[in-house]
Amino acid sequence: MPVDALYRDDFYLSTCEAVVTAVHEDGGIELDQTCFYATSGGQPGDTGELERADGTKIVLGQTKHGPSKDIVIHVPLENEPRPLVGETLVLHVDWQRRYRLMRMHTACHLLSVVCSYPITGAAVGEEESRVDFDMAETIDKDEVTAKLMELVGENHPVYLQWITDEDLAANPDIVKSKNVRPPIGLGRVSLVCIGENSSIDSQPCGGTHVSETQEVGQIHIAKIEKKGKENRRFRIRFGTPGDEA
């Protein structure tokens, strides 16, 4: 059944109560609401624990969407106990992991500002993220790092604005990605805006992000790889070159 995906409106919500609405044969659990982000748009789904009334925990290995975006399935690790339909659980997101992913995902948006080329692919990771651009030019990674850190240090606000699916269809040019579909199908689309009045960037995205660029912390471009005549892969890591954190 459709879930109330609380993370869509509050990226910092790491715990909540929820009622079990379905338990699949493979162990997947559906809830009436959730703060667990489901894998989408290059960002991995959350991991963490579901706490039962007696204090025992159900450890999750991943969170994913079901047949549609309004269904979220919480997948326990092997041999974890199964809850009962109607049971109330307390959800605990692995916050340290989620926050790193939020910082990384925001860093990817900043990179798309520094390198204003069409995006052909992206993957957000805890230690390293990658963004692929449709570009043939040679560019210095240290120069890109310096521009990224300038945006981080200026501490621009990062916030959401909501538009309708119809608004997005009428303004397709706001999408930077060439082959990744924006998060449509729920009637509304979230725009991740950076800077006062979107002065730095505005991009459709369903991922999770920090609330100001300074939270990204120290990042750098570790490598720029040539993946074709007009494709460059940028690898972002935390820390400074040679001192990844």
Automatic annotation (TrEMBL):
One of its GO terms (cellular component) is cytoplasm. Its cofactor is Zn(2+). GO terms for biological process: alanyl-tRNA aminoacylation. GO terms for molecular function: alanine-tRNA ligase activity; aminoacyl-tRNA deacylase activity; ATP binding; metal ion binding; nucleic acid binding. Keywords: Metal-binding, Zinc. Residues 1-245 form the Alanyl-transfer RNA synthetases family profile domain. PROSITE patterns: AA_TRNA_LIGASE_II_ALA. InterPro entries: Ala-tRNA-synth_IIc_core, Ala-tRNA-synth_IIc_N, Alanyl-tRNA_Editing_Enzymes, Thr/Ala-tRNA-synth_IIc_edit, Transl_B-barrel_sf, tRNA_SAD. Coiled coil: none annotated. It is found in: Cytoplasm. This is Alanine--tRNA ligase.
